[in-house]
Amino acid sequence: MSLASYIGCNIQIPLSDDDDLMYISDCFSNDYNKRDVKKHQFTTPFVYEVSSHWGIEISKNMNQRRCAESKKKLIALCEIMNRYLEKGDYFELFSCWVGEEKDKRVGEITLKMDDLDVDLIEMPEKTLVRIEK
User: Fold this and answer.
1) Looking at CB atoms within 10 Å, which of 39, 69, 82, 104 has the fewest?
2) What is the mean predicted confidence (pLDDT) over 9-30?
3) Residue 26 pLDDT > 80, yes or no?
């Protein structure tokens, strides 16, 4: 199984090349996975898989190397989304194992893009993260 990360947003955004640290394009998911995450997790109309060959998960109980990588990926994702979002808009982020998009969330958090301290975030899989600009 693979850990996939999805974003939901209120605007359409272009797909990106897969040679970046974080890119917006299908890697592990299919249309059914994206449909399920949209229906069961997100409040936004547009859903994309964001990929880096592994999902974004930040938790003190995980491998610290992978956690550090996830922090870098989250920063890169926010930098990408900052180019597309207007002030006051937001995007949602949800990471789960492929096939578990319908599962119940373990939590919800809201973060501010301009006040993001990745060292203070606890974001295990199946957490809905709302990131506001």
Assistant:
1) 104
2) 78
3) no
What's the domain range around 77? 3-132
- Strand ranges inside 70-126, DSSP E: 90-97, 107-112
Q: Which residues contact 95 (CB under 8 A, 6 or more apart)?
A: 3, 4, 5, 6, 55, 56, 57, 123, 125, 126, 127
Number of domains observed in the structure of the chain: 1
Q: Per-residue pLDDT tens for 32-90? A: 999 999 999 999 999 999 876 677 888 888 888 888 888 998 998 999 999 999 999 99
**SS3 call for 109:** strand
Token pair listed for 28:
């592990």
Question: pTM for the whole thing?
Answer: 0.91
Name the nearest CA neighbour of 6 among 55, 69, 45. 55
Bridging pattern class, strands 127-132 and 23-24: unpaired
Q: Is 131 a residue whose pLDDT tops 90?
A: yes
Phi and psi at residue 42, to the nearest 5°: -95, 155
Burial class (CB in 10 A: 0-12, 13-18, 19+), 66: middle
